[in-house]
Amino acid sequence: MSTAAMPEFPAGFRWGVSTSAYQIEGGVDENGRGASIWDTFAHSPGRIADGSTGDVACDHYHRHAEDVALLAGLGVSAYRFSIAWPRVRPAGDGPVNARGLDFYDRLVDDLLAHDVDPVATLFHWDLPQSRQDAGGWLARDTAHRFAEYADATAARLGDRVKLWITLNEPFIHMSLGHGTGEHAPGRTLLFDAFPVAHHQLLAHGLAVAALRTRTTSPIAIANNYSPVRAAGDSDADRTAVAAYEALHNRLFTDPLLGRGYPDGLGFDTAVVRAGDLDVIAAPIDVLGVNYYNPTGVRAPQEGSPLPFELVPLQGYPRTAFDWPVAPDGLHELLGWLHRTYADDLPPIQVTESGCAYDDAPDADGRVHDPQRIAYLDGHLRAVRAAMDEGVDVTGYFVWSLLDNWEWAEGFTKRFGLVHVDFDTQVRTPKSSYAWLRDLIARP
Ligand code: IFM
Question: Does 352 contact ligand 1 (Cβ within 6 A)?
Answer without folding.
Answer: yes
